Each structure stands twice: as C-alpha cells, then as structure tokens.
Amino acid sequence: MSIQESVFKLTTEIIKHEKRQEIYELITKMRISKTAENQVDIDHSQLWYFAHQENIQFLGLLILNENAGSVSLNETGIVMNKLSNHDLKIIESWYRTTIYILEYFTELLSPYGNIIKNISNPYYHYAKPSLITNSEIISLSDQTIKNIRVELESHPTCLLLKDLSQKFKKEIEQISSSLPQAVLKIENDIHRASITSTNREIFDLQITQNLMDLAFSDKTVAKLIFAIINLRSTMRIISQLIFQATYQNNLPQIGNNNITKIHNHHSTNIGKVLTCSIQPTGEEISTKPGDIIYYNIDEETHKYKGIAKICNFTFKMSQEEGTIMKFGLRLIDDHLNYFENL
Fold first, then answer.
1. Is 186 helix (H, G, I), strand (E, B) or coil?
2. What is the pTM of this model?
3. Secondary structure E strands in the chain
4. DSSP letter string over 42-63?
5. pLDDT, tens digit, for every residue of 226-258?
6. How many CA atoms lie within 13 A of 105 on its CB side?
7. What CATH number is given for 253-332 in this structure?
8. Longest C-alpha distance within the chain, in Å?
9. DSSP SS3 for 297
10. 10: Cα separation from own chain's centroid
C-alpha cells in the first residue's frame, strides 16, 4: 500500500467519524456569507475566507480568530467576528489532532537529529496559537496512523535523510542554526517559481545563488535542503487532506465532464504539472491555491488520473461558454510529493 492509499484510508475514516459532523456543519456554516437569503446567526465568512488563504488549515483559523473582532482586515474596515467558545473548541480539537498526527510522523526522524525532525513539520515556523478550550484529540484508528508512518519510513526522502545524517552528522550539526533559514528561503523561492518553467539551467543558477547568499555552497547541503523541502511538502499534503476531509465528502474533481481544454501536461525542473480549463461546479469555484483536487482525464490524446495541488487559477466569463476556470496544478505522486524532480 502506498502512502497515498494509506492517507486516503485515514481521510475515509475521518469522513465516517462520529465527531466529523460537528466540524462539517461548522465549516459549512462559516463558508456562507450572511445575506437576505442566507440568515446565518453570525457571519464568519470573512474569517473562513482569509484563514483559507493562509493555507495552514485549522492553524489559520486559530491565528486569525485571536485577532478577530479587533483588527480591520483591510481599508474597507471589514472586521471578522470571533468564534464562540463552543465553535472554537471544535476547531482546536481538530487542530490538536492534526498536530498529534504530524508530530507522530516526524518523530521517526529523531535519529537523524532534532533540527531535521523539527523543520520537517510544515508548521515549524509558525507561532503556536493560544489554545483556550479543553479540547480533546479526536480518537482515530491507531493502526491506520501507524500504517502511514510505516510507509513514510520507506519514503525515498526519508531514506535519503537517513543516509545523509549518518554520513555527514558532524557537518549537519555545524550548520544546524542556519539550516532552518535556508530551507524556508529556498522553499519560498521554489513556490514562487513559475510552475510551467522548464529551464533547468536558470533554475539551478538561482538556487545556487541562494545557497551562496546563505553561506552554503556544498552540494551535500543542497541535497539535504531539497530533501527536507520534499518531506515538508508530503507532510503539508497530509495535513491538507485531513483538513479537507472534515468539510468535503469528496475532493473537487476535474475530468471529462467538466474539462474544456488541456493547455499543458509536462515535467518541469521541479515536478510534473497540468494546466487546464474547466466549467466549474460550486465545489470547484470555492477552491483556492493549496487545495488538493482529483483529476481523471480519459481522452484520445490525454489519459491520466491522480491528485494534484492547486497552485493558481483564473476566472473568465463569456456568453458562449459561461464561467471558465483555468487551473495551474502540481501533480502529486504516490509518495505524496509534488517536487519529485528536485
């Protein structure tokens, strides 16, 4: 069983879990703006919208909720409404659960050094929110979670980190204080790079310059940094799939029934990408960069399926076609990795 299959088994369990209904109802309510037609008690749509843009799942909701009711979000003076303690307890419970799972997974990196273990957690560089309720960790199948960890142990990136940490233990200790900055800086540059760029020479030159700027020039260190970035992407996908399972019964889908044009499907210097246009349903319209979608395209010249991370999208409206969304997607492999070419 692949990591992807193991994680989907966990998300299926979440969807069927007795505690899932309350978070599902809460997020469904938060996604609705208060209008004459939609008479929700308190409008939390602004809190949901801006937290969703942060792409850090329940943590985004908790961070923004700390300032809700007191800070205007922009020049229009929009102020978010705070969550009630009842709703906050639900959010905090699922946040604790996500953190518990991620820390259980990254714990397997402890033999390679605490710095590698800590940076591999996608929430590493965020300040921990002030949890104010006595929320519980949701009880999920220990065996299901253990199975994912077993698969992670044989993850190519984990095996590479094991090899590097054993061969270059002393060298890694020497750069441990500056390694986090290097990982986050280069990871940010990679995320900002055009997903369709295939110019490896320019890409390598940019990354090499970044390494030199950060006082790193050794190829082994570069390999270590890329390995950590790869594993962070896998952990980020796991946390995102857990998050989406709490309010989506199925991933938003792209397929023959809604696709209008395939613009690109190729391998870049970072990983495989797909750019395409679709006529969206309500679920696709409500997606944003960072969300995971399922694609299943079976045409004469294009046959592929899997899951992908949304990197960008644009809207276009016309009388002939109606609403059209153009997606830029990074394709995710069985190891839950979208940086496979790094």
1. helix
2. 0.90
3. 253-255, 259-267, 272-278, 292-298, 303-318, 322-332
4. S--HHHHHHHHHHT-HHHHHHH
5. 899 999 999 999 999 999 999 999 999 998 888
6. 29
7. 2.30.300.10
8. 65
9. strand
10. 16
